[in-house]
Design goal:
Helices cover about 50% and strands about 20% of the residues. The chain is an alpha+beta fold. The strands form four sheets. Strands 2, 4, 5, 8, 9 and 10 form a six-stranded mixed β-sheet that branches. Strands 11-12-13-17-16 form a five-stranded antiparallel β-sheet, covered by helices on one side. A four-stranded antiparallel β-sheet has the order 1-3-7-6.
């Protein structure tokens, strides 16, 4: 006989659980949305002509070299003359030679005149994140320029960048629910595949991953170009993005999700309803092989387009990343599925002790794999111990490590309660005689009072007597009689009240009969109350099960936070790359080609400034050390700003702002956008001061909501 699919309405604990998880997911999606856009992952190593240099003859092309491969588009390189006209000809491409994929070049129009030229560039690094910047060089002699390249900073940020980050978060969450839920229902608790709440949970993960993938495809163009959301609906731009490696990975994910839909249909259909053990075993083999291929393929769409695909040991890192993602999904997704099963109404069927123990063993294996692959990834992405504290990636990784440790600690308690599941507790060891005696005593206490109530109140009161006696028995037994028994007792009491009796007399046909709507409604409420009491007693009958629900709920809450940190990490610049970029930013320029006047080395090329400050609050005293390089008018300079406390340690500030003013020419203030580069260290790239002279530098430091100060100093620009 075929097994029928069980329908369970979402109410009570399940509905509250769904509301809590949805609120947590929304909260941390907002956290991702308000996070800073991802830092550059491909660092610009050198340029030809060099940034800030003066060449005697006009170059025929501009060449940029990056620390890793980059993807180029038709507008990746623009070379703007002093009037803002683009003098580049042809489409940008890669230079010939070794590691040509890490270069970008474009030809220049012949016969360009003297003056300062601005090179505005943007590209997509191999790990799918956009990078952009600008620098200047001069032909003959520097000149004034009217070029504005502030739009370069919008690449990877703005509304499109925010929505892109939110979509990535839901993609990770959907993947975890899809894979973890399927593993739990096929390996740990196959009978649960018949339950509608669990089917909805897994199908919801599939739908979230599909929707997030489609959103990522549409948002890809405005995300990498820094344009408006209108480009998300431009079919030509979408087609162009699909031809890139990240776009191909997203399309592959959609195709694999179509296969996953077939897998879900079989899992929730013929596999869940199959009664014959041999037929079920044969189908399980097919589901296991097919599901594993689909899950590995979906995980590979992340590994082939993000951090694992670039850097050192790529051939090892990509398979390790796939294992890491699958371990995360099995653990966290299975955890949410188990939590939903533990909060199901008792009438649905309680998740078996053996199923919970199977998941406990499976989760332990997943955790071990997660920790092992995570250690390798941390070493590969961090490189040095200092990067843990000096880079934002390292600090986020420390937070993730702390969350994983917390999750493992809570999981230890869950395993403890899992071992105790089903063991008889004090509430159920009193024996049948004591149980019957408790029922008899409670019924005896209620009898005199309810008899008087029935005699005085007629049929409605008599009906309440039946419900009270039934609920009293339910409270005593812990597992009350079925709804049929309750209905029988209540109906009997009502029938007794509607007959003739002393004192109350007979009820009228339209108010005391069996068809009285008010009495039917009253009986329905009493039966619902009895059912709710039975379900509550059944849920609380096993103390270990109640404790397990609480510990798994705590695990799920930590898991939501962990998923948020993981999403932000995947969009952040790895610590190893940040350290390399920092070294490149302070390294001297490469040797100049013949005919090129390179910027002079030494102190004359850099301008430094030290300004003490005091915001007036606790820990508000310190020193601001500022270095601008090169300190040459019209060049694209980099500003390093370091705040130190009186003891020499880095000083943390809630906000730092920087601006430049040239009082002699009444020019400014020109704001410089600073970003966090390390502990107490901020950097501003592409700072252009058009004229020579004594520039006034204003540094604003805020250490709390109310403690803020602006200090100024003077810096000479040549």
């Amino acid at each position: 006989m075929n097994r029928r699919r069980l329908y369970v309405p979402l109410h009570g604990p399940v509905r509250r659980l769904a509301a809590v998880l949805a609120a947590c997911a929304a909260l941390f999606a907002v956290a991702i949305a308000t996070a800073a856009p991802a830092s550059a992952h491909a660092a610009l190593i050198r340029t030809d002509p060099a940034g800030g240099s003066v060449v005697q003859t006009a170059p025929q092309q501009v060449v940029l070299t990056f620390s890793e491969g980059v993807l180029l588009s038709a507008d990746s390189l623009r070379v703007l003359d002093p009037a803002g006209t683009n003098v580049a000809t042809g489409a940008p491409g890669h230079a010939a030679g070794k590691d040509s994929g890490a270069t970008a070049t474009v030809a220049l129009r012949s016969g360009i005149g003297n003056g300062t030229y601005t090179v505005a560039w943007k590209a997509v690094s191999q790990d799918s994140h956009p990078v952009a910047g600008a620098f200047t060089f001069s032909v003959g002699a520097p000149s004034k320029t009217t070029v504005d390249v502030s739009d370069q900073a919008a690449v990877g940020g703005g509304v499109a960048g925010t929505l892109y980050g939110v979509a990535r978060y839901f993609a990770y969450g959907g993947f975890a629910l899809l894979v973890g839920g399927c593993v739990f229902l096929s390996v740990c608790w196959p009978r649960g595949a018949l339950l509608r709440p669990l089917q909805r949970l897994v199908a919801g993960g599939w739908a979230a991953l599909v929707a997030a993938t489609i959103a990522l495809i549409m948002l890809r163009a405005p995300y990498v170009n820094g344009s408006g959301l209108g480009d998300a609906f431009d079919l030509s731009l979408i087609r162009a993005q699909l031809e890139t490696r990240p776009g191909a990975a997203l399309v592959s994910r959609l195709l694999l999700l179509a296969a996953a839909a077939v897998f879900l249909a079989v899992l929730f259909g013929s596999y869940a309803k199959r009664e014959d053990p041999e037929e079920r075993a044969d189908l399980a083999w097919g589901l296991g092989i097919g599901g594993s291929v689909v899950a590995v393929g979906i995980a590979a769409t992340w590994a082939m387009a993000e951090h694992a695909s670039v850097g050192i040991q790529r051939k090892v890192a990509m398979p390790v990343d796939v294992v890491h993602l699958l371990s995360m999904a099995v653990w966290l997704g299975g955890l949410i599925t188990l939590l939903t099963a533990l909060f199901l109404p008792s009438g649905t069927g309680t998740v078996e002790r053996a199923a919970v123990r199977r998941f406990s063993a499976l989760a332990l294996t997943a955790i071990t794999s997660l920790v092992g692959t995570g250690i390798y990834q941390a070493w590969r992405q961090i490189g040095t111990w200092r990067a843990f504290t000096d880079t934002s990636y390292g600090r986020l990784l420390l937070i993730k490590i702390g969350l994983v440790c917390s999750l493992v600690c809570v999981a230890w308690f869950s395993r403890r309660w899992t071992r105790m599941l089903g063991e008889p507790g004090a509430a159920v060891t009193t024996g049948v005689p004591a149980l019957l005696g408790k029922v008899t005593r409670q019924t005896a206490r209620l009898a005199p009072r309810q008899t008087v109530k029935a005699a005085a109140g007629g049929p409605e009161a008599a009906a309440e007597v039946g419900a009270d006696v039934d609920l009293a028995s339910a409270d005593a037994a812990g597992e009350p009689s079925s709804g049929t028994d309750a209905g029988t007792v209540t109906a009997a009491a009502a029938a007794a009240g509607s007959g003739s009796g002393s004192g109350a007399g007979t009820g009228s046909a339209d108010t005391g009969g069996a068809d009285d709507p008010r009495r039917k409604e009253q009986l329905r409420r009493q039966q619902d109350a009895a059912k709710a009491a039975r379900e509550k007693k059944a849920r609380n009958a096993d103390p270990a099960r109640s404790a397990l629900r609480r510990s798994v709920l705590a695990e799920a809450g930590i898991a939501v936070v962990l998923l948020t940190v993981t999403t932000i990490l995947s969009g952040s610049q790895p610590g190893r790359a940040a350290e390399e970029q920092k070294a490149l930013a302070t390294a001297p320029a490469a040797g100049a080609a013949p005919g090129v006047t390179a910027p002079a080395q030494g102190a004359s090329q850099d301008a430094t400034l030290r300004i003490p400050f005091d915001t007036g609050g606790p820990g508000g005293k310190g020193t601001a050390d500022l270095t601008l390089s090169p300190a040459r008018a019209g060049s694209s300079a980099t500003v390093h700003l370091e705040l130190t406390a009186p003891g020499g340690l880095p000083l943390k500030a809630a906000e730092v702002r920087l601006s430049f003013t040239l009082p002699a020419q009444k020019l400014g203030p020109l704001d410089a956008k600073v970003t966090t580069f390390g502990a107490g260290h901020w950097i501003a790239s592409g700072v252009q001061l058009p004229l020579a002279g004594a520039w006034q530098v204003a540094v604003t430091v805020r250490t709390s909501d109310i403690d803020e100060v602006t200090v100024t100093g003077s810096m000479q620009i040549t």
